[in-house]
Specification:
Blueprint: H1 2-26, H2 30-53, H3 62-90, H4 92-96, H5 98-121
């Protein structure tokens, strides 16, 4: 669980950093920017979790594992994005600093993402 949290924090830094950069530097749409930042963050957390958190569990090739992982993370992203979108819509501060919305949304998506990783992507199979 601790390593999954470290991977999640790395993912948060990627997610929040990219969305903030896109919105601040390019005046990008904060909703569309999250789709880009999510894919980058999910790929980053997959690399970390594959290497450290669930390093001994391999059931698929790299692309198969990555695609399942990103698909599984979509559940957590849906929760995260719903919270984020609500905050962006209702608060001017979050529109200017969307990284704050990512932080709040990340708390909501964590449980879904951990469960999907632990019990689907990297579950221990019985012999």
């Amino acid at each position: 669980m601790a390593l999954f949290c470290v991977g999640g924090f790395i993912g948060f830094l990627i997610d929040a950093g990219i969305v903030q950069w896109l919105v601040s530097a390019f005046d990008a749409n904060p909703y569309l920017s999250r789709l880009i930042s999510f894919l980058a963050a999910a790929s980053g957390t997959w690399l970390f979790n594959r290497r450290y958190t669930f390093k001994h569990v391999r059931h698929y090739g790299r692309f198969g594992e990555w695609s399942r992982y990103v698909f599984a993370m979509c559940g957590g992203f849906a929760v995260n994005f719903a919270i984020y979108s609500s905050l962006v819509f209702h608060f001017d501060l979050i529109q200017r600093l969307p990284a704050l919305g990512v932080a709040v949304g990340s708390l909501g998506g964590f449980v879904v993402n951990f469960s999907a990783s632990r019990y689907w992507i990297y579950r221990q199979r019985k012999s």
